[in-house]
Design goal:
Radius of gyration: 18 Å
CATH class: Alpha Beta
CATH topology: Metallo-beta-lactamase, Chain A
Largest sheet: 7 strands, mixed
CATH architecture: 4-Layer Sandwich
Structural class: alpha/beta
Number of strands: 16
Bound molecules: zinc ion
Strand content: 25-35%
Length: 268
Protein backbone atom coordinates (compact mmCIF):
# COMPACT_ATOMS: atom_id res chain seq x y z
CA UNK A 1 0.00 0.00 0.00
CA UNK A 2 1.27 3.45 -0.88
CA UNK A 3 2.67 5.00 2.28
CA UNK A 4 0.55 8.13 2.48
CA UNK A 5 -0.59 9.03 6.03
CA UNK A 6 -4.06 10.16 4.91
CA UNK A 7 -4.79 7.03 2.89
CA UNK A 8 -6.97 4.38 4.54
CA UNK A 9 -8.04 1.05 3.11
CA UNK A 10 -11.58 0.07 4.03
CA UNK A 11 -13.29 -3.35 3.86
CA UNK A 12 -16.83 -4.29 4.78
CA UNK A 13 -16.20 -7.53 6.67
CA UNK A 14 -19.89 -8.24 7.28
CA UNK A 15 -22.97 -6.09 7.97
CA UNK A 16 -22.13 -3.91 10.99
CA UNK A 17 -18.38 -4.64 10.92
CA UNK A 18 -16.01 -2.36 8.99
CA UNK A 19 -12.24 -2.78 8.78
CA UNK A 20 -9.94 0.23 8.35
CA UNK A 21 -6.22 0.00 7.70
CA UNK A 22 -3.82 2.91 7.93
CA UNK A 23 -0.64 3.49 5.95
CA UNK A 24 1.57 1.41 8.26
CA UNK A 25 -0.59 -1.76 8.38
CA UNK A 26 -2.45 -0.95 11.60
CA UNK A 27 -5.99 -2.28 11.55
CA UNK A 28 -8.99 -0.93 13.42
CA UNK A 29 -12.63 -1.89 13.28
CA UNK A 30 -16.03 -0.26 13.62
CA UNK A 31 -18.91 -2.33 14.97
CA UNK A 32 -22.44 -1.04 15.16
CA UNK A 33 -25.06 -1.99 17.72
CA UNK A 34 -28.64 -0.78 18.07
CA UNK A 35 -27.81 2.23 20.26
CA UNK A 36 -24.09 2.82 19.87
CA UNK A 37 -21.13 2.02 17.70
CA UNK A 38 -17.72 0.97 18.98
CA UNK A 39 -14.37 1.54 17.32
CA UNK A 40 -11.80 -1.10 18.23
CA UNK A 41 -8.42 0.75 18.17
CA UNK A 42 -7.61 3.79 16.03
CA UNK A 43 -4.45 3.11 14.03
CA UNK A 44 -1.98 5.97 13.78
CA UNK A 45 -2.57 7.43 10.30
CA UNK A 46 -3.30 11.05 9.47
CA UNK A 47 -6.49 13.06 9.78
CA UNK A 48 -9.32 12.61 12.25
CA UNK A 49 -10.27 8.96 12.76
CA UNK A 50 -13.45 9.73 14.70
CA UNK A 51 -14.68 11.71 11.69
CA UNK A 52 -13.60 8.92 9.33
CA UNK A 53 -15.54 6.32 11.33
CA UNK A 54 -18.56 8.65 11.57
CA UNK A 55 -19.00 8.33 7.81
CA UNK A 56 -19.99 4.67 8.40
CA UNK A 57 -22.52 5.03 11.23
CA UNK A 58 -25.07 7.48 12.56
CA UNK A 59 -24.74 6.11 16.10
CA UNK A 60 -22.50 7.76 18.70
CA UNK A 61 -19.08 6.11 18.63
CA UNK A 62 -17.15 4.97 21.68
CA UNK A 63 -13.59 3.67 21.54
CA UNK A 64 -12.21 0.40 22.91
CA UNK A 65 -8.41 0.12 22.83
CA UNK A 66 -6.78 -3.35 22.81
CA UNK A 67 -3.49 -2.04 24.27
CA UNK A 68 -1.48 1.12 24.81
CA UNK A 69 0.74 1.08 21.73
CA UNK A 70 0.76 4.13 19.50
CA UNK A 71 -0.28 2.19 16.40
CA UNK A 72 -3.52 1.25 18.24
CA UNK A 73 -4.42 4.29 20.34
CA UNK A 74 -2.94 7.37 18.61
CA UNK A 75 -6.36 8.97 17.97
CA UNK A 76 -7.94 8.16 21.34
CA UNK A 77 -8.06 11.87 22.22
CA UNK A 78 -10.79 12.37 19.56
CA UNK A 79 -13.25 10.28 21.61
CA UNK A 80 -15.24 11.30 24.67
CA UNK A 81 -15.60 7.69 25.84
CA UNK A 82 -12.51 5.47 25.53
CA UNK A 83 -11.94 2.12 27.26
CA UNK A 84 -8.58 0.59 28.16
CA UNK A 85 -7.28 -1.94 30.68
CA UNK A 86 -5.88 -0.26 33.83
CA UNK A 87 -2.50 -2.01 33.46
CA UNK A 88 -2.04 -0.27 30.10
CA UNK A 89 -3.51 3.02 31.31
CA UNK A 90 -0.63 2.85 33.79
CA UNK A 91 1.86 2.61 30.86
CA UNK A 92 0.74 5.79 29.10
CA UNK A 93 3.23 8.20 30.67
CA UNK A 94 6.09 5.79 29.99
CA UNK A 95 4.96 5.51 26.34
CA UNK A 96 4.86 9.31 26.05
CA UNK A 97 8.41 9.50 27.41
CA UNK A 98 9.95 6.55 25.62
CA UNK A 99 8.63 7.48 22.19
CA UNK A 100 9.03 11.25 22.65
CA UNK A 101 5.36 11.86 21.83
CA UNK A 102 4.79 15.61 21.21
CA UNK A 103 2.80 17.14 24.06
CA UNK A 104 -0.34 17.85 22.00
CA UNK A 105 -0.46 14.18 20.94
CA UNK A 106 0.16 12.67 24.36
CA UNK A 107 -2.50 10.46 25.93
CA UNK A 108 -3.10 10.59 29.66
CA UNK A 109 -4.90 8.35 32.12
CA UNK A 110 -7.83 10.72 32.70
CA UNK A 111 -9.07 10.16 29.13
CA UNK A 112 -9.78 6.48 29.70
CA UNK A 113 -12.48 4.43 31.37
CA UNK A 114 -10.84 1.29 32.80
CA UNK A 115 -12.16 -2.09 31.63
CA UNK A 116 -10.90 -5.51 32.62
CA UNK A 117 -11.66 -9.20 32.20
CA UNK A 118 -15.39 -9.99 32.42
CA UNK A 119 -16.55 -6.43 31.79
CA UNK A 120 -19.14 -5.97 29.05
CA UNK A 121 -19.50 -2.89 26.85
CA UNK A 122 -23.16 -2.67 25.82
CA UNK A 123 -24.05 -1.30 22.39
CA UNK A 124 -27.75 -2.07 22.73
CA UNK A 125 -28.37 -5.48 21.26
CA UNK A 126 -24.68 -6.25 20.98
CA UNK A 127 -22.64 -7.09 24.10
CA UNK A 128 -18.88 -6.73 23.73
CA UNK A 129 -17.02 -8.77 26.33
CA UNK A 130 -13.50 -8.02 27.58
CA UNK A 131 -11.02 -10.91 27.88
CA UNK A 132 -7.58 -10.33 29.37
CA UNK A 133 -4.46 -11.58 27.62
CA UNK A 134 -1.44 -9.94 29.24
CA UNK A 135 1.91 -10.55 27.59
CA UNK A 136 2.50 -8.29 24.59
CA UNK A 137 1.64 -5.50 27.03
CA UNK A 138 0.60 -5.87 30.69
CA UNK A 139 -2.95 -4.74 29.92
CA UNK A 140 -3.59 -6.32 26.50
CA UNK A 141 -7.22 -7.40 26.04
CA UNK A 142 -9.39 -9.08 23.43
CA UNK A 143 -12.88 -7.80 22.69
CA UNK A 144 -15.54 -10.40 21.95
CA UNK A 145 -18.48 -9.00 19.98
CA UNK A 146 -21.27 -11.46 20.74
CA UNK A 147 -23.65 -9.66 18.38
CA UNK A 148 -21.58 -10.05 15.22
CA UNK A 149 -19.68 -13.12 16.47
CA UNK A 150 -16.24 -11.57 16.05
CA UNK A 151 -13.20 -11.65 18.37
CA UNK A 152 -10.83 -8.68 18.08
CA UNK A 153 -7.38 -9.75 19.21
CA UNK A 154 -5.20 -6.62 18.85
CA UNK A 155 -1.56 -7.69 19.09
CA UNK A 156 -2.09 -10.11 22.00
CA UNK A 157 -1.49 -13.27 19.95
CA UNK A 158 -0.03 -11.83 16.73
CA UNK A 159 -1.90 -11.10 13.53
CA UNK A 160 -1.10 -14.16 11.47
CA UNK A 161 2.59 -13.37 11.86
CA UNK A 162 4.68 -13.68 15.02
CA UNK A 163 3.41 -12.13 18.22
CA UNK A 164 5.91 -9.51 19.42
CA UNK A 165 7.08 -10.64 22.87
CA UNK A 166 10.52 -8.98 22.71
CA UNK A 167 9.48 -5.50 23.86
CA UNK A 168 10.47 -3.89 27.16
CA UNK A 169 7.14 -4.52 28.92
CA UNK A 170 6.41 -8.01 27.57
CA UNK A 171 6.17 -10.79 30.16
CA UNK A 172 8.40 -13.89 30.27
CA UNK A 173 7.51 -16.98 28.24
CA UNK A 174 6.22 -19.12 31.13
CA UNK A 175 3.82 -16.39 32.23
CA UNK A 176 2.68 -15.87 28.64
CA UNK A 177 2.08 -19.61 28.28
CA UNK A 178 -0.02 -19.58 31.46
CA UNK A 179 -2.08 -16.63 30.16
CA UNK A 180 -2.61 -18.34 26.78
CA UNK A 181 -4.04 -21.43 28.50
CA UNK A 182 -6.45 -19.29 30.51
CA UNK A 183 -7.44 -17.43 27.37
CA UNK A 184 -8.14 -20.66 25.47
CA UNK A 185 -10.51 -21.73 28.24
CA UNK A 186 -12.37 -18.43 27.99
CA UNK A 187 -12.51 -18.66 24.21
CA UNK A 188 -14.18 -22.09 24.29
CA UNK A 189 -17.68 -20.66 23.61
CA UNK A 190 -16.30 -18.53 20.76
CA UNK A 191 -14.32 -21.06 18.72
CA UNK A 192 -16.45 -20.60 15.61
CA UNK A 193 -16.29 -16.79 15.72
CA UNK A 194 -14.32 -14.72 13.21
CA UNK A 195 -10.96 -13.60 14.65
CA UNK A 196 -9.61 -10.23 13.53
CA UNK A 197 -6.09 -9.14 14.49
CA UNK A 198 -4.51 -5.75 15.02
CA UNK A 199 -2.66 -5.93 11.71
CA UNK A 200 -5.23 -7.75 9.57
CA UNK A 201 -3.37 -7.91 6.27
CA UNK A 202 -0.22 -9.28 7.87
CA UNK A 203 -2.11 -12.58 7.86
CA UNK A 204 -1.58 -12.60 4.09
CA UNK A 205 -3.84 -12.66 1.08
CA UNK A 206 -6.89 -14.92 1.66
CA UNK A 207 -6.35 -16.34 -1.84
CA UNK A 208 -2.76 -17.36 -1.14
CA UNK A 209 -1.51 -20.63 0.40
CA UNK A 210 0.40 -18.65 3.04
CA UNK A 211 -2.82 -17.08 4.42
CA UNK A 212 -2.54 -17.42 8.18
CA UNK A 213 -5.24 -15.51 10.09
CA UNK A 214 -5.68 -15.59 13.86
CA UNK A 215 -7.67 -18.67 14.97
CA UNK A 216 -8.06 -20.64 18.21
CA UNK A 217 -5.82 -23.23 16.54
CA UNK A 218 -3.09 -20.61 16.16
CA UNK A 219 -3.38 -19.77 19.85
CA UNK A 220 -3.00 -23.48 20.67
CA UNK A 221 0.09 -23.59 18.46
CA UNK A 222 1.47 -20.60 20.39
CA UNK A 223 1.27 -22.68 23.59
CA UNK A 224 3.42 -25.32 21.87
CA UNK A 225 5.92 -22.64 20.82
CA UNK A 226 6.18 -21.64 24.49
CA UNK A 227 6.56 -25.29 25.57
CA UNK A 228 9.32 -25.86 23.04
CA UNK A 229 11.12 -22.63 23.97
CA UNK A 230 11.03 -23.52 27.67
CA UNK A 231 12.32 -27.02 26.85
CA UNK A 232 15.14 -25.57 24.71
CA UNK A 233 13.77 -27.38 21.64
CA UNK A 234 12.11 -24.62 19.61
CA UNK A 235 12.66 -24.18 15.89
CA UNK A 236 13.88 -20.59 15.78
CA UNK A 237 15.97 -18.18 13.78
CA UNK A 238 17.42 -14.69 14.14
CA UNK A 239 14.81 -11.95 13.74
CA UNK A 240 16.73 -8.73 14.45
CA UNK A 241 20.32 -7.90 15.40
CA UNK A 242 21.40 -6.80 18.86
CA UNK A 243 20.57 -3.14 19.38
CA UNK A 244 17.23 -3.22 17.57
CA UNK A 245 15.24 -4.37 20.63
CA UNK A 246 17.51 -3.99 23.66
CA UNK A 247 21.03 -5.38 23.83
CA UNK A 248 20.29 -8.98 22.84
CA UNK A 249 19.84 -10.55 19.44
CA UNK A 250 16.08 -11.06 18.83
CA UNK A 251 14.80 -14.45 17.63
CA UNK A 252 11.56 -15.83 16.18
CA UNK A 253 10.30 -19.32 17.04
CA UNK A 254 7.73 -21.30 15.04
CA UNK A 255 5.29 -24.14 15.50
CA UNK A 256 2.41 -25.02 13.18
CA UNK A 257 0.48 -21.84 12.35
CA UNK A 258 2.07 -19.76 15.12
CA UNK A 259 5.24 -17.73 15.58
CA UNK A 260 6.64 -15.78 18.51
CA UNK A 261 9.35 -13.11 18.55
CA UNK A 262 11.45 -13.10 21.73
CA UNK A 263 14.67 -12.24 23.51
CA UNK A 264 16.63 -15.18 24.99
CA UNK A 265 16.50 -13.61 28.47
CA UNK A 266 12.66 -13.78 28.40
CA UNK A 267 12.74 -17.57 28.05
CA UNK A 268 12.15 -18.52 31.66
ZN1 LIG B 1 0.38 -3.19 16.68
ZN1 LIG C 1 1.35 -3.69 20.08
Amino acid sequence: MENHPFKYDIDFIEPGVVHFEDNIDSSFYLIEGRDKALLIDTGCGGGNVHRLASAFTEKPIELAVTHAHGDHDAHAGEFTVAYMHPADIAQLEEMNRRFGVPEEQQLHADLFTPVSGGDVIELGDCPVRVLEMAGHTPGSVLFVDEGHKVVFTGDAVGSGVGVWMQLANCCCISQYRHNLLELLEQLAPYRDYLYLGGHYRQAGDPASPSFNPVTPRMIEDLVVVCDELLAGKARSEEYAPAGRFGEEVTYIAYHGTAALVYLPSYVK
